[in-house]
Write a structure and sequence with these properties.
Elements: E1 2-8, E2 10-13, E3 18-26, E4 30-39, E5 46-51, E6 57-59, E7 67-72, E8 77-82, E9 91-100, E10 106-110, E11 114-119
Parallel strand pairs: 2-11
Antiparallel strand pairs: 1-3, 3-8, 4-5, 4-9, 5-6, 7-8, 9-10, 9-11
């Protein structure tokens, strides 16, 4: 069984910073891409940032230059540093990990989500 447990988040004023982290635990053969997604009330879940096992990153245009994704492969952990936060960044942030199985199958796992609220 694989679990993704997020921590961090909370309430911050516009212009402030927050960080969230996500630890992957359980029976893991390999972790491929990891990422963060978010879902605001009444909106669909959207990509925020992803990072490959080799460290290559992608970002949504709306967060480029403000958010930084990183990972510690030894700790099976992915981080998201969020700076210059805006009210429109308010959402539930979900961790995602693509876990490889010994027989080659890739399985997508999600965390339970953590709330980030940015006040104006």
């Amino acid at each position: 069984q694989v679990q993704l447990v997020e921590s961090g988040g909370g309430l911050v004023q516009a212009g402030g910073s927050l960080s969230v982290s996500c630890v992957v635990s359980g029976v893991i053969f390999s972790i491929n891409a990891m990422g963060w997604y978010r879902q605001a009330p009444g909106k669909e879940r959207e990509l925020v940032a992803t990072i490959t096992s080799g460290g290559s990153t992608t970002y949504a245009d709306s967060v480029k230059g403000r958010f930084t994704i990183s990972r510690d492969n030894a700790k099976n952990t992915v981080y998201l540093q969020m700076n210059s936060l805006k009210p429109e960044d308010t959402a539930v942030y979900y961790c995602n990990a693509v876990i490889g199985q010994p027989w080659g199958t890739l399985i997508n796992y999600w965390g339970q989500g953590t709330q980030v609220t940015v006040s104006s």
